[in-house]
Design goal:
Blueprint (H helix, E strand, L loop, with lengths): L2 H24 L5 H55 L14 E2 L24 E2 L3 E4 L17 E7 L16 E4 L9 E4 L23 E11 L12 E8 L2 E9 L1 E10 L9 E3 L15 E11 L13 E2 L5 E2 L7 E9 L1 H7 L2
Parallel strand pairs: 1-2
Antiparallel strand pairs: 3-4, 4-7, 5-6, 5-7, 7-8, 8-9, 10-11, 10-12, 12-15, 13-14
Length: about 350
């Protein structure tokens, strides 16, 4: 080998060695500092994502609680308003034309006889209960189980607004009303609990088949606020409930969770034109005309509704005014809404306008 060849071979060998060294240097991995920086960045990104997910989840939960609260409030107001619109309905008749006497039955009556109806055999005035009756916060009723202290209740009465039932379909333990369609009947309105109590006639006053074979169940419902929904489990969720006599038993039904206060103002018609002249509380209905329950033609409902679950890191700062002389400042972790609506007793006030 010539001298020039030897030099080229040496140079080639030296370049190969340097390449191998550079390859080793490139494949040696991360240093400890580089690894720690990468881990710190990864943890920071993970914490950011966790925080964002947590906030999004919390916002979603709060939105669901708020939506549920508003739905419960609207549902409660709808039920109260609808039943108030039906109050005083007794079928195809105007009870005011009969100049009835009015009773004041127990809202917790457990028999049909205790519901305040009395129908004489002749043309004398029947006795009927008023369409509405308020129950003040201080008044105690035994059938309003677990009623929340300091809350009011209200009783609404009317005939069932669904399809009438036949006399053969009468169920024991209920009171039914029947209104005549025959102009010759001396008695125009009957109430009873058995088929033998109903003798009114059809529109044609047919002497062969005279009996009117339809009646309507009398409905008396009392709405109140209980301190729990599932009281057996003691869940502590305030709830709007309703108690009603059905088939001889008082049935209590939960209607809307989160309702923690109910207050009612009663619109009294003092001049007989069917319109409320003043709104008063239950205690102002003295039983002396014109401040009597049969003159109530409207009801203004105030409902205070809260979430069923508390909101972390929140304290309710507001004061809620539920009509005259009642303010509530809870200062707890539950978010609330105050809802108010006025419903008319069409079957009482509307008839007076005729």
């Amino acid at each position: 080998m010539t001298g020039l060849g030897m030099v080229a071979s040496a140079l080639t060998s030296r370049e190969g060695t340097r390449g191998a060294i550079r390859l080793v240097e490139r494949s040696r991995g991360f240093t400890l500092i580089e690894l720690m920086v990468a881990l710190a960045l990864g943890v920071l990104i993970l914490l950011t994502l966790t925080l964002a997910f947590s906030r999004n989840s919390g916002n979603q939960s709060e939105l669901e609680r708020t939506t549920r609260r508003m739905e419960n409030a609207r549902f409660a107001l709808d039920i109260l308003s609808e039943d108030t619109l039906h109050a005083g309905y007794y079928g195809e008749i105007n009870p005011d034309l009969l100049t009835p006497d009015f009773s004041n039955p127990d809202p917790c009556a457990t028999t049909p006889a205790g519901l305040g109806w009395a129908t004489p055999a002749g043309p004398a005035n029947p006795t009927i209960p008023p369409a509405i009756r308020g129950i003040g916060a201080a008044e105690t009723l035994g059938c309003l189980s677990n009623r929340l202290a300091g809350t009011e209740a209200v009783t609404l009465r009317h005939a069932d607004t669904g399809a009438p039932v036949t006399i053969a379909a009468i169920a024991g333990g209920n009171l039914y009303v029947q209104t005549t369609r025959c102009s010759e009947d001396v008695t125009q309105l009957l109430a009873g609990e058995s088929s033998a109590d109903f003798t009114l006639r059809n529109l044609d006053c047919d002497p062969v088949d005279p009996n009117l074979d339809s009646v309507r169940r009398f409905v008396q419902r009392t709405y109140f606020v209980a301190g729990c929904n599932d009281c057996t489990a003691g869940d502590g969720i305030p709830t709007l409930k309703r108690v009603e006599l059905v088939n001889g038993q008082l049935r209590t039904t939960s209607l809307a969770e989160g309702v923690e206060n109910l207050r009612v103002e009663y619109g009294v018609d003092t001049d007989g034109d069917g319109r409320p002249n003043q709104f008063v509380l239950a205690g102002a209905i003295t039983g002396v005309a014109p401040l009597v329950w049969q003159n109530v033609v409207a009801a203004r409902f105030h409902l205070l509704v809260r979430n069923t679950q508390p909101t972390p890191d929140y304290t309710d700062p507001r004061t809620y005014v539920l009509g005259p002389a009642l303010s509530v400042a809870p200062a707890d972790q539950f978010k609330r809404s105050l809802m108010t609506t006025t419903a008319r007793l069409v079957n009482v006030g509307g008839r007076r306008e005729l």
